């Protein structure tokens, strides 16, 4: 029977998918007084609403119990593993191979709060805070993320994110990116064996740049670029969670965990809806 008190709570079908993937994070021999499902619901509530820990509703377990599991899950990478399992399940459900063969990369600069921790100034975006680097598959599902100070250039941040990923995603052969990653081409081929493709509008560069050629007429309004919009859409999905509207965290590891947490929530909803249909 569903016991959802808030819109962010898991329903029975979602919990049935998630329960085998997470485990209690308490020392051996210590008695657990609070249901694990309610602890997970509390974490999703904090993610969705952006509430402060002291504002956690009384319907959930005490914040000290919730934070204990929250911190342990951050340390052992639980939600990254949960995202991986759910992502592979979803890809199978839509008729795709579990491992993607192509990916898209982009970054998002966000402001930080007074909480402290690493930060920097992104001169291009005029933002003092941190930068989130995301790698997604062609469906927009999160593959890997990295959070670091915003003053780190996109190319350097991409190398930090991508280092060693050929072992986690052996089927990937191609990666799409924007022009900020142009200098990554040789490193990407040498380090991972991946090809880099940078989609551009047809009126940028090319033959018309010759002195004897007429420049093309540029269409008015916003023009969507192939492939690159996928990762930008994923950023939009993730930042509907108010905890991710800014980076409120002291540790960058917490910010990385919250991105996986948000993606897990999306995948749980998709999988259960598909099963219901």
CATH topology of the domain at 99-255: Nucleotidyltransferase, domain 5
CATH architecture of the domain at 99-255: 2-Layer Sandwich
Please write the CATH class name of the domain at 99-255: Alpha Beta
Structural class: alpha/beta
Span from first to last CA? 20 Å
What pattern of helices and strands is seen along the backbone? HHHHEEEEHHEHEHH
Estimated radius of gyration:
21 Å
Shape: globular
Average pLDDT figure: 89
**pLDDT < 50 runs, ≥5 residues:** none
Q: Enumerate how many helices there are, as a single number.
A: 9
Helical proportion? 25-40%
Tally the beta strands: 6
Beta strand %: 5-15%
Largest sheet: 6 strands, mixed
Protein name: Transposase
Organism: Microvirga ossetica
Keywords: Plasmid
Domain Insertion element IS402-like: 10-82
Structure, explained:
The chain is an alpha/beta fold and about 280 residues long. The protein has a domain at about 100-255: Nucleotidyltransferase, domain 5 (2-Layer Sandwich). The protein has 9 helices and 6 strands; from the N terminus they run ααααββββααβαβαα. Strands 1, 2, 3, 4, 5 and 6 form a 6-stranded mixed sheet that branches. The longest helix has 25 residues, at about 250-275. It starts with 11 loop residues before the first helix and ends with a helix.
What attributes does this structure have?
277 residues; alpha/beta; Nucleotidyltransferase, domain 5; six-stranded mixed β-sheet; 6 strands; 13% strand
